[in-house]
Structure formats: C-alpha cells, structure tokens
Write a structure and sequence with these properties.
Blueprint (H helix, E strand, L loop, with lengths): L11 H19 L3 H4 L5 E6 L4 H12 L3 E6 L4 H6 L11 E4 L3 E5 L3 H9 L5 E6 L18 E7 L4 E7 L6
C-alpha cells in the first residue's frame, strides 16, 4: 500500500503529484510544433469564382507546399478585396487570407508566402501578384514563362516591391 505521510507529517504523495504536474507542464511548454510555427497548420481561405480553373490550380500549389486550404466560392470577390484594402492595380483573380491576419492576392508562390510569414515586413498585411502573369503558380503550363513582380501590401493601402520571380516555382 502507498505510504501517504512520512513521520514528520509531510505529504509525500502530494509532493510527488505536484512535482509530476510541474514536470509535465514544463515539458509541454518546451516542445514546439514546427509546422504551426511555419504556418502550415493554419488555414488559408481562398475567395474565388467557382468558374475559375487557375484559382483551383493555385490552391493545389499551396496544398502541395504543406498549406491547409479551403475555398469560398462567389461570383463577386470585390468585397473581400475592399475589406483588405487591396488597391485595384494590385488585384488578381482570387484572394487568400491566412489565419484572418494576412492577405495573399493573386498567384503568390507558396515559397514567398512562407518567407513572408516567417518575417513579415513592417506595416505589411500581405503580398500581391497583380493580374494573372504567365509562369505564376496556377498559370504556368510548362512553357512561356514570363518573370513577374510580387509586391508587399502595406496597411495604409500602398504597396512596395517584395521580390521578382525569374523562374517557374516548383510544385
């Protein structure tokens, strides 16, 4: 039988139980989930037209790069773009929203989304690839690649150069 009290009156059982709780709590705090740190477990919600095939291809590109993606189909995505303050010159055919915190407009490569999430530029709310450039994820069909520019979207509605993509992105 378990001896609960020692001769000096201390409660050995409760000391052991408290020690185990402390150890378990410290162990839980010290382990981190790398996938969550990288944003892979957080969902990107893509607002798109149900008729758009390139949007579906972009979603596949994100999923192949370890993002969890869901989509909201609608014929008018302007309200989402307006809500996020995406300037008309920066708009693409779909809008991705990560964790209700950042926006990715158009055919932004998964590699650059990950880079952005790891170190968001000051005052930036996301990235944009305006239009539908040949060679961007969801638009590239294996030939006719054209370099394109990815812009950082600023919280005040302005945008800044982020990176020029000069080669097709791997799936």
């Amino acid at each position: 039988m378990l001896k609960l009290f020692e001769r000096n009156g201390s409660c050995t059982f409760w000391r052991i139980a408290a020690s185990l709780c402390i150890v378990a709590t410290l162990a839980a705090c010290s382990t981190t989930d790398t996938r969550q740190e990288q944003g892979a477990d957080s969902e990107i919600v893509v607002y798109k037209s149900p008729l758009c095939l390139c949007c579906n291809d972009w979603i596949t590109h994100l999923e192949q790069n370890a993002f969890t993606v869901s989509s909201e189909n609608g014929l008018d995505t302007a309200a989402v773009k307006q809500q996020w303050g995406i300037h008309p010159s920066m708009q693409g055919c779909h809008t991705g929203v990560w964790n209700r915190q950042y926006v990715f407009e158009g055919h932004v490569p998964a590699r650059l989304i990950r880079k952005f999430l790891a170190n968001p530029p000051a005052n930036s709310i996301g990235l944009a690839v305006p239009g539908m450039p040949q060679g961007s994820p969801g638009m590239y069909r294996g030939k006719n690649f054209s370099p394109y520019v990815v812009y950082a979207i600023q919280a005040n509605g302005e945008y800044r150069f982020y990176e020029k993509v000069t080669a097709p992105e791997p799936s």
